[in-house]
Amino acid sequence: MKRIKVLHYDAFSSKPDKGNPAGVILNGDCLNETEMQELARIAGFNETAFPIHSDSADFRIRYFTPGQEMDLCGHGTIAALYALKENGLLSDENEVTVETKAGMLPIQLTYTSDEILVTMKQAEPVFKAFKGSRAELMESIGLADGDLADDLPIKYGTTGNWTLLVPIKELQAFERMVPYNKRFPNILTEIPRASVHPFCLETHDDEADMHGRHFSSPFSGTVEDPVTGTASGVMGAYYKKYIAKNEESEINLIIEQGNEIGKEGRVRVKVAQDHGRLHVEMTGNAVFVKEFEIAL
């Protein structure tokens, strides 16, 4: 029997039990894929990250939900970097490269007096049209068609993981949302394994620019992600492409999430435009919560 140590970090917050919890398992090189999936299922986090050896980067990270492996996970990456640093496995360099199934990630580390800020470059954003039923989509998150912001498009977007970006008129609607995740694949016929990410431009925090919730694909084995790094990145790209169309070539946004479930967190997103191409960076922090063991 193996006894595996799991490190619990909360990303996008400096307060334990806020933000987005992630598990980190540092001895991933001793585990096979089946064992990783089983550990993620038992640990129960939306994502568990396994930093392992890479021949082409500083290290590689594999990400598992309780139900499947993911190509990329923003909060899992931040948690893994904190765990590596705090356990003496990461040098004092300001730049590292991480290999993922979504490609190579250049990571910038900024050290302050009390935390590390982790900045991830995400893949170039891609958007696709949603051609399904708006009424069925809104019913699947407990709302009505009238809650949609009609002046903005519903779009699939990705900077590593596909999600459906759903513009909502008013902040108060987020308290009424109830996700029926099992309906998603039959509604999201273009990309059935996508998650659903409603957002609006009203916020709780006066310093924030956008508010969101993130409802997981049923294939992931989870229901809601408290604060989502990859989806925040593609939200920023959506903002630049469909809202701030003619503004400056670079925008900086603060995105809030998790308020409705007591897991408030903040993600900083920078989107730069160069010759029509969008470049997205996401920045976040994390805090250690506890460690525990799983017998495998």
From TrEMBL:
Q: Which UniProt keywords apply?
A: Isomerase
SUPFAM superfamilies in the record, alphabetically?
Diaminopimelate epimerase-like (SSF54506)
| Single annotated GO MF | isomerase activity
One Pfam entry name: PhzC-PhzF
Keyword Isomerase in annotation:
yes
Key word Coiled coil present: no
Q: Which family does it belong to?
A: Belongs to the PhzF family.
Q: Could you identify this protein by its name?
A: PhzF family phenazine biosynthesis isomerase
